[in-house]
């Protein structure tokens, strides 16, 4: 008798994992800890699994994702936005943990999902980059708040918080540099990236941690992954403006700041920006074009294991 390959959806909460198997209709739960992960792996290892999917859930999914991946099971991380769009298209308005687990299983059976390749070397760097981004966002919020308060005591309080956050960010920068330098492969990637004028340690660490596909995809694929590939907006006689959409926002945000610097201080990109502006492109359009050119240049550098050269742009 032919065995049916199963699609397994997992809804992740802080303390519990709700699991749904589409083909059999099974629903069960395990604890979101090492014991629960081991029980889940044991239960699924004896089945013919097509794919297991779980939604990114603020980091609570990392441990079970790693456990399933280490067990050799075909696990995938699902983009929450795509999942919500799928639910709307399917007319699923209700929401609870079990419904979400079934929804993920249906999503896996309907739409293609990309495989993941976990690299244990990146765990610490990814954690540090994420923590730094969160601290930087908090620092921006505190600074913005300080601009609007009038009470001297509140201003002093905001200043102390900002000073502390800035010190913590500097500590994370030092720890990031140490973590990258400790691994020869990551250190080499960091040297290649930072050989490019206007690519500093923050962008380099962000690309290493959050864009491990760099150097392994085509230029168009890597631009789309970051959210910099322009998409058509045409219908019949309507010829709308092409626009970028989606992608990895944390990478795109850091790349934006680097592109602002490159458009002024990197001679190659400064010339490119000036040409775009002379051709009538808006300033924001020119910056996005620099971002796209910068990430595709870095992609080629990592692919070819070659440092920055103006001739390669």
Describe the structure using short key phrases:
313 residues, alpha/beta, Nucleotidyltransferase, domain 5, 5-stranded mixed β-sheet, two-stranded antiparallel sheet, 12 helices, globular, Transp_IS110-like_N, Transposase_20, transposase activity, DNA binding
Describe the structure.
The chain is an alpha/beta fold. It folds into three domains: 6-110, Nucleotidyltransferase, domain 5; 119-182; 195-313, no CATH class. Helix content is 57%, strand content 11%. The chain is built from twelve helices and seven strands. The protein has helices at 34-45, 62-70, 80-89, 97-110, 123-146, 152-181, 184-194, 201-210, 219-226, 249-265, 267-278, 283-304, and strands at residues 6-12, 16-21, 27-31, 49-55, 75-78, 234-235, 238-239. The strands form two sheets. Strands 3-2-1-4-5 form a five-stranded mixed β-sheet. A two-stranded antiparallel sheet has the order 6-7. It is globular and about 60 Å long. The mean pLDDT is 89.
């Amino acid at each position: 008798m032919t065995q049916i390959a199963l699609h397994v959806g997992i809804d992740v909460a802080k303390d519990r994992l709700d699991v749904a198997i589409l083909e059999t209709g099974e629903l069960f739960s395990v604890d979101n800890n090492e014991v629960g992960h081991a029980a889940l792996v044991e239960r699924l290892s004896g089945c013919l699994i097509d794919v297991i999917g779980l939604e990114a859930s603020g980091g609570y999914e990392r441990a079970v994702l790693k456990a399933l991946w280490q067990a050799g099971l075909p696990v995938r991380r699902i983009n929450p936005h795509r999942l919500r769009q799928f639910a709307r298209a399917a007319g699923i308005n209700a929401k609870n943990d079990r419904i979400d687990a079934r929804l993920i299983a249906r999503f896996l059976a309907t739409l293609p999902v990309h495989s993941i390749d976990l690299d244990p070397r990146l765990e610490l760097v990814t954690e540090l980059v994420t923590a730094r981004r969160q601290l930087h966002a908090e620092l921006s919020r505190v600074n913005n708040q300080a601009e609007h308060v009038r009470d001297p005591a509140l201003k002093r309080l905001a200043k102390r918080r900002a000073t502390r956050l800035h010190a913590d960010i500097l500590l994370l920068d030092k720890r990031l540099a140490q973590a990258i330098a400790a691994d020869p492969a990551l250190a080499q990637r960091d040297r290649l990236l930072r050989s490019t004028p206007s690519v500093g340690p923050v962008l380099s660490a962000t690309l290493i941690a959050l864009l491990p596909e760099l150097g392994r995809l085509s230029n168009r694929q890597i631009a789309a992954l970051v959210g910099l590939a322009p998409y058509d907006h045409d219908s019949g006689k309507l010829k709308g403006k092409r626009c970028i959409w989606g992608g990895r926002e944390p990478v795109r945000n850091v790349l934006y700041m680097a592109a602002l610097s490159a458009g002024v201080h990197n001679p190659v990109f400064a010339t490119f920006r000036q040409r775009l502006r002379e051709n009538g492109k808006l300033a924001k359009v020119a910056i996005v074009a620099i971002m796209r050119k910068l990430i595709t240049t870095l992609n080629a550098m990592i692919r070819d294991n070659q440092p920055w050269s103006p001739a390669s742009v």
